[in-house]
Amino acid sequence: MARARDPIADLRRIAFLLERANEATYRVRAFRSAAKALAGMSAAELTERAGNGTLTELAGVGDVTARCVAESLAGEEPVYLRRLAATEGSDLDAEATALRAALRGDCHTHSDWSDGGSPIEEMALAAVELGHEYLVLTDHSPRLTVARGLTAERLRRQLDHVAQVNAALPEGFRILTGIEVDILADGSLDQDDDLLARLDVVVGSVHSGLKDERSKMTRRMLKAVANPHLDILGHVTGRMVSSRPAGVTGPGDRGHRARTRAESDFDADAVFAACAEHDTAVEINSRPERQDPPKRLIRRALEAGCRFAINTDAHAPGQLDWQRFGCERAALCGVPADRVINTWSAEQLVAWTHDRPPRR
User: Which is nearest to 132 in space by CA: 170, 88, 91, 180?
Assistant: First the structure.
């Protein structure tokens, strides 16, 4: 008989590939729920249930996932996994491939502490498997209630939790602390200054008032860019080029039921000039439904002398492999690796966010 495979690992791998392929949330949830339901079961009990056909009596295990488990225990790669693996990924050209290989981490990610679908530990382990050296955890700030934004107290608890998780992670990898802080209507940042000062990386994004008139939005963004705590300006236009993403399975899922949305109107040249002056990086958001900023604005930010961060804005483990999409767009616009902050080591990144000369 063939040696049994790890059925839990196979279920999690299927979920990862479904997330990466932007498949429907219910499909992802089916495999992650099954993996969770079976995780505490002994190998003997799992084998017995698979043999007598009682796996589906367990909450969270359906016919398809039970079949995958049976195939894994028989030493076979599950058919579902084999089909996904055969069609995974997309070819990148040489420039995009080189840029992707130069990335050492991801500066914009979410966990189930806000509107992500997976625990911090699971996001971190997926990043390790992708070859990252670090992952910046940037859950939302309190005003974004639909995304379960973190109050100051919850953020303090998260910082303690991240320290505990880091102690258990493989050597050579670390979670960096961060936040995706709301840029409020007056341009201020939605979190206490003392907490923002403690974080390794602060991403600031506009999530409300996206249809504000041009001069108001420009003033709002300029004030945020000039804030001494802001390191990265996130998804700068707020646009959505397609419907809601799949794979987001967290409690804030309804917050991602995005329709297509036009770009916010602002003076891009003024905002990018301010980013260059204050050494604030412009995010190239890799989410397929965002593709933000559009390529014409990436080129203008490059001409303005801005730095960039190629981030996934991942809300699930499989989405951490979406950096390829941002790299494609950056390469098409001629963005060199030495202008991308997440080609740096964790130490270099934190030194830049905390120790660089005064910007403002």
Answer: 170
User: Crossing angle of helices 120-129/152-168, nearest 10°?
Assistant: 40
pTM (two decimals)? 0.83
The Cα–Cα gap between 58 and 36 comes to 11
Measured distance CA(154)–CA(282) in Å, rounded: 27
Pinpoint the alpha helices (H) of the chain: 7-20, 25-38, 43-52, 63-73, 79-86, 94-102, 120-129, 152-168, 193-198, 214-225, 268-278, 295-304, 323-332, 346-355
- Long-range contacts (CB closer than 8 Å, 24 or more residues apart) made by 10-13: 10/68, 10/69, 10/72, 10/77, 10/78, 10/81, 11/35, 11/38, 11/65, 11/68, 11/69, 13/81
How far apart are alpha carbons 275 and 145 in whole angstroms? 28
Closest by alpha carbon to 116, among 82, 140, 136?
Answer: 140
CA dist., res. 226 & res. 106, Å (int): 23
Residue among 252, 236, 250, 235 nearest 145 (CA): 252
- pLDDT per residue over 195-248, tens digit each? 999 999 999 999 999 999 999 999 999 999 999 999 999 999 999 997 655 444
From CA 117, how far away is CA 27, in angstroms rounded? 13
Are 155 and 148 in contact, with CB atoms under 8 Å apart? no
| DSSP 3-state of 229 | coil
Residue 80 has pLDDT above 70, yes or no: yes
Q: Exposed, middle or buried: residue 339 (CB in 10 Å: 0-12, 13-18, 19+)?
A: middle
CA 265/CA 246 separation, integer angstroms: 27
Residue 93 sits at the vertex; the CA angle it makes with 88 and 95, to the nearest 5 degrees, is 130
Bridge-partner residues for 286, per DSSP?
A: none
Judged against a pLDDT cut of 80, whether residue 259 lies above it is answered with no
